[in-house]
Amino acid sequence: MANEEDDPIIQEIDVFLARSLLEKLYLFQYPIRPASMTYDDVTHLSAKIKPKQQKVELEMAIDTLNPNYCRSKGEQIALNVDGTCTDETSTYSSKLMDKQTFCSSQAASNVSRYAAAVYKKGELHLTPLHGILQLRPSFTYLDKADAKHREREAANEGGDSSQDEAEDDVKQITVRFSRPETEQARQRRVQSYEFLQKRQAEEHWVHLHYYGLKDSRSEHERQYLFSQGHGLAENTELIKSPSEYLMMLMPPSVEEENEKPMAPSNVLSMAQLRTLPLADQIKILMKNVKVMPFANLLGLLGSGTDPTAVLRCVQQVALLVQGNWVVKSDVLYPKDTSSPHSGVPAEVLCRGRDFVMWKFTQDRWVVRKEVAAVTKLCPEDVKDFLEHMSVARINKGWEFMLPYDEDFVKKHPDIVQRQQMLWMGIQAKLEKVYNLLKEHLTPKKQEAQSAHPLLVSGEQRVNMAKAKVKQNYGQLEKEFQKQKAEMKSKDSSARTDVPNIRIKEEPVSVEEPMDTSAHEGLNNGLVNGLHPAQGSMEPVNGHLPGGCIDRVAQELKAFVSSTFKKQFVLTLSELKRLFNLHLASLPPGHTLFSGISDKMLQDMVLDTGCKQILVPFPPQTAASPDELKVYALWEAGDTYDQHRQVLLEIFSKNYRVRRNVIQTQLSQECGEDLNKQEVDRVLKVSFCSLW
Questions:
Q1: What is the pTM (predicted TM-score) of this model?
Q2: Residues 330 and 204 placed together within one structural domain of the fold
Q3: Cα Rg of the chain, angstroms
Q4: Burial degree of 206 (CB within 10 A; 0-12, 13-18, 19+)
Q5: Which residues pair with 527 in a beta bridge?
Q6: Count of domains in the chain?
Q7: How many CB atoms lie within 10 A of CB 253?
Q8: In a domain, 535, yes or no
Q9: Which residues pair with 125 in a beta bridge?
Q10: Which of 219, 282, 516, 522 could form a disulfide with 465 if both were Cys (CB 3.0 to 4.6 A apart)?
C-alpha cells in the first residue's frame, strides 16, 4: 500500500480496439541498417506474398552511386550469376548487382498476444497483429551462380562422370506394382517433409504493389488503425474485470503446449528434445544420426545424464559395431512399411540391412556387389544401407564411417560381450535366410579378432623389408646365374662388344636392405630397377654399354622438355612422380629402365633451359627436401614469358606474396596495366601445378 501511494496515477488513457485491419495487419522486421538511412529512402521494386504460408518476398533497389558501394564486386556478382549474355531471364539486366531480395520467416508461432498501438489525442487504439515476419537477405542468386559454374564444368569435361564403383553394362530393371495405400501410410505421407514442401511450392505468389510512407494511399490505410466508432457496443471486449482483462492480455500458453508434437520430427529443436523422456531422446537421436560413438551421444543428451541409464536405453534401439552404436533396422523400417525404391516390405529390408551391419562387425570394408548378390535387393536399397553407416572409397569399396572405438570397448567389456552374443544370434538367422557359405564366415571370424586397424611402426617396416630381401635373395641369385650362363654361350661377335667387363658379385648386406619404396609397383617385374629381359641394354656395375648413354640422354631430355612445356613450374618431388608414371607407361626393355638417378634428372632439367628458383621457405616448414627444390622453365616462347620471369623473381625473394603486390609489380615491369582477371590468368598459366 505504501508503494502504491508513492506511485500515484498521473493520467488515465482510454483504450479502443480497432477491427478494420483484423487478420490483415502484419509486422515486418527488417535487417539493421545505418542510422542515417531510413526505409523511406529505399526503393521497393516489387513485392509478393503467399497468404496461406504467410511468406513474403521484397525486392529492393541498391544505391549503386553510394560511395560505400563497391562497383567491381557488383559487376563480378552479376557476371557470375548471369554470365556474359543478357536476356529477359537475367537477374541483373544492368550487368551490376543493383537490387537485393529479402525473404520472410515467421518470428513467432503464436501472435494472438501482440497488437499494433497508435496513440492520438489521449486515446490508445489497438489492432491485433495477424503475423510477425522477419525479413532476411535471400542469396538465391548464389545458387544460380553455382548452377552456371557446374554447367560450365560439365561442358568442359565433355559429359564424363566419375562413379564410386564401376557398374556393369547390364543393369537390373526393377518392376514395381502399386498397392492400395492404407490410412496409416497416407497419414505418414501427408505429414512427411517432402509432401509439405510440395504443398508449399504449389501455392502461387500474389504480387503486391508497394506504396511509400508519404503516399496518399498509405495515409488512407493508416486511418484504419484507429477505431471507427467510440461506442460501447463496439468495444464490449474491453469491458471486463481486471482479472479477465489481464487474462486477455497475457493468456496462458496452453495452445503452445498442445502444439508440441508427442513424437519429435526432423525439425525438432534440442530444447524441445530434452523435454522428452530419455528413451525417446536416444531413439530420435539414433534414428537421425544412425551411427554415433557413445561419447558423442552423452554430449548431445546434456550434462547430468546418467551414463548407466543411457547404456540401458541405447541397447534397445541400437547395436554395437566396431565400438560404435548403429541404429537398429526395425527402428528405421517399422512394421507395415515398404521400400520407397522397390516396394519391398520392411521385414526384407531389415534382414538386408542386418547383413550389412554384420559384415561391418567382421571387417572395415564391404563391397556393394557382394551385398547385392547375397541379399537379392535392388541397388538403390543396398546403397541406402551402406550410406547409413559407411563412406564410399574409389576402387576400394565402402569403409565403415567411424574409427574403432577402443576406449568404449575397454571400459564396458560386459556390454561388448552381450552385444557379441546378440550378433551370434543374428548371424545364425542370416545363415538360414541367405544360405551363407563357410567362405563367407570363416575368414571373417579371424578378422574379427582385430577389428581395429593394425598399426605398423617404421622399425617394423624395415625388419619386414630385410626379411623379404633374404627370402628373395636365393631366387634372384638363380636368375642372375642363368642370365650369366646365357651371356657366355653367345657367339664371339657378340662377346667382342664387351670384352673387358667383369660382373662383380656382391652379397646383400643385412645392414643395408634393398629399397622397398612406394613406387615398387610401377616397375612391373623390375629387379633393383632393371628389367630381366633387357639383354645387352642392361647396365653392368652401374655403367651403360657404348652408344646407350646417348639414347638414354635423348629419351630423358625429351621427357623433361615435354613435361616443362605443359607445367612451367615443378618441384623435384612432383617431377619424380611424373617420371615414375612415365616409366610405368613404357614397354619392357625401354632404355629409360637402365636406371636414372636424381642427379641425372636434375642435370637434365638445367640442360633443357630451366632454372632452379631458390624460394625462401620458412625454416619450420614440414615439406621434404625434394619439395623445397623448385625448377621453372625460363623461356617457353609464349606471350607470358616476361610475366612468368617477373613472378619467378618475386617468389625468389618471398614464398608468400599478396595479390595486389603481384599486380603492381607486373604492371611496373611489363609496362601494361593488368586488371585482377588478367593477373589471375597469368598465375594460373604459370603456376598451375604448384599454386
A1: 0.33
A2: no
A3: 38
A4: exposed
A5: 530
A6: 3
A7: 11
A8: no
A9: 16, 118
A10: 516
